[in-house]
Each structure stands twice: as C-alpha cells, then as structure tokens.
Amino acid sequence: MWGAPGPGxxxxxxxxxxxRAWDRGYYDRQDAEQFAAELRREGYDTLVxxxxxxxxxxxxxxxxxxxxxxxxxxxxARTVFHELAHQLxxxxxDSLFNESFATAVENEGMRRWLAVRATPEQRAAFEGQLExxxxxxxxxxxxxxxxxxxxxxAGPSDDQRRAKVALLDALRRDYGELKTAWGGHAGYDKFxxxxxxxxxxxSLSLYSELVPAFEALLLLEDRDLPRFYWRVATLAALDKxxxxxxxxxxxxxxxxxxxxxxxxxxx
Length: 267
What we know:
Elements: E1 2-3, E2 25-26, H1 29-41, E3 49-50, H2 66-69, H3 73-88, H4 95-117, H5 120-151, H6 158-181, H7 189-193, H8 198-206, H9 211-220, H10 225-236, H11 240-250, H12 253-259
Antiparallel strand pairs: 1-2, 1-3
Helix pairs in contact: 3-4, 4-5, 4-9, 5-6, 5-8, 9-11, 9-12
C-alpha cells in the first residue's frame, strides 16, 4: 500500500498557508503519485511512501504482509500491537488522535512483550529507543509551533518562503545537536536526507504529538489497560475540540506522575 499525505506547503500555495493533512492509502503507487501531483499543483507539499502494514478496522481480515514479516520478530510484535489498537478504538477524521493512541498502545505492548521475551540488556535498549523517540518528537513539536506561527501570518510571500527555508535549516542544526547528545545515533538521518518538507513533518507528528498525553492517561490508570481503554473511548466520544482540550490537560501529567514514583513500567 502507498500513502499520500499532503499538508500545506507555503511556497506557491494559492490558498492560505495551513497544515491541511490527508492520510490516504492506495494499492497502486501510480494512483498515489497522481493524487500527490494534484496536491502539488494546488501548492501543497507532498509525500508518497510505502506502507508496510495497515488496518482495515475489521472491514476485512487484515493480511499478514511480507513487508513487515521481514523486519524481525520484535517489529512484527510492535506492528501487531499498533494495528490492533486501531480496531479497538478509531475516530473517523482524527488521524492525530488515532495514531498517537495506537503508538501509546504499541509502546506499552512492547514493554510487556519484552518483559517476558527479552534480556535486561534488550529491555534497556528499548527504553533508550523510546527516550530518543520522545526527544525527537519534542523537537518536532517545537518546530511545528514555529511553523504554525509563520503560516499564521498573512498570505504567502517571498519573506515567508525564505523564513520557511531558514526554519528547516535550523531544524537540521538542532537535530545535529540532538544526535551528538545521543552519541552519534543516526536513526533519524534518513528523515532529513532529502525532500524535507511540511508533509514529512506532519506525517511524523501524527504518530507522536499526543503520545505523551495518552501515556499520562495510562499512568493515571496504573497501567491497567481495560481502564485505560475505557478512558480513551470516553475521549473518542467527544467532539474534536473537546478531545484536544482534554488531551492537552494531560500533557504535563506524565512527568509529574513519574517524578512521584508512580506508574512504573510493567515487568
């Protein structure tokens, strides 16, 4: 399957500069490329990429694809946890909510899976991976706010286009500093390799921006998954604005709970 998200571009955009995003899938790459070309003609940044796994939300018995089987046992487990979360709770038209929830479930599922199937060293490596993901997601959140501020100004202009390029350059520099702090870990180099644009930034944010809020909710429920799912289902029943507001109040909670020594990881 091929995905074709396409958020607002700025450069050459005939419309206002916004973070309009789609998350559309195609079984034929040519169809995805055609859709992306239509968006580019409207002035939007685009990204077309292969999707190794997906959920039809119970519409079909979802296939076990060779595209994720070749990634190894741990990655298969991670993918299964993520995709099954979509079948449990899914809000039509709210990709940010859906993907952040599924990522939080994926992380907790992996902790529990590794607790019985991995060595202490492997578990420590996974927690280190989560710490890097959280730091990188934080960097992306900071820059998304900066881009929002830029695009909130009046219509596209040469000054805005130059400011967009400057922000992308600053993002690359800050990532370099983060990479140095990680001891040279290069796991996100490919993201910055080529065609860094709004489509990439928004696609990443869908899977990370609200994860801290969902993890805070999980900690508040003492990592009791049935209770956590019930709380998430309650949020899912709200309208989008109310959901965002409720999740926003949870964002500062995670660090406070951890500092209090509560909500220790399972295992």
